[in-house]
Amino acid sequence: MAQVLYETIESSKLGEPREIKIQLPRNYDPEGDILYPLIIVFDGDYLFEPMIGNTDYHSYWGDMPKSIVVGINQADRRNSDLSFSNETYFPSDEGGAQFFEFVGQELVPYINEKYLTSDFRIVVGHDQSANFLNYYLFKDKPLFRGYIAFSPDLSPEMGVRLQEKLAVSELDTFYYLATADNDVRSLRDEILVFNSSLSTIENPKLHYRFDDFTDADHYSLVGLGIPKAINEIFGLYKPINKKEYSEKVLTYEGTPFEYLMKKYEDIQFFYGFEKKVVENDLRAILAAGKKKNDLETLKELSKLARKEYSESMISAYYTGQYYEMDGNMKKALQNYQSGLLLNESEFISKDMLLDKIYDIQDQN
Question: How far is the C-alpha of 96 from the C-alpha of 94, rounded, in Å?
Fold first, then answer.
């Protein structure tokens, strides 16, 4: 099960200790070599739990990578933490500036040192904290790559400033914004204008998504928005589905195997970590290769399967599929037979291999 830890950080920036909540991924191994995205959740007193429930659920099904989620408790210090100057509209010296530095100079380094984190970081906020998270975008090297803003209580000039900043950003940035038809009226009106500004940005480095939920209010929109935000930020990471298969894989200018390689290269580029090719994607590329009668795709796919899944029936099955298409039934049969001694996978079983063996034997 995913582990939730409760810790207290002694902060020189805040001048006092601060409680945090940490969820580590299922089967987290502190001695392992897997690096996990870091998700920082403001208003951790109430926003942490719905966030960890969704991240655990979506990572279980492979729709996002397993991640480390950290919630910052702010119930007693919220107004001070999230304050901004009435003159500059940036974090104030009465608490906002200290909290800003606490997150960047103390909390994130603390988590990075203690746990296995990647450089891909997401920040989540609601109301005042959804406004505050925007300040990190104005750093020369932004601390976060993903920003999830639920019904932000925007500070003056934030819309104009953020539009100007994101328009020239050279770093791939994921930004999710949400409101609802029954949101606080004053917030909703500003958010709709804010969305209009962000929607005009034509920077390919900005990956922006806006949702305006119906039959939801200032609080319930959070539950609707979290899975939408996860889907948007980790859309590239998700396994190939029917839509991607028909609209992208089959229409790709190169071979299906080349599409697969590009997809995983993009994942590493966008998120900063490698993802092992999942069996679902092998199946999709196999189907595309067969549909296009592309022997080269099956050949490269068989090599990849042997490399990534040497102890699994996957390696034998995909190699057998290649030899079948190549017309070499003897080698296809040998591979299917050798696979009987390997471990079953999610989609390939002993019975499946036996069916292939009997089919080839019957043909001879």
Answer: 6
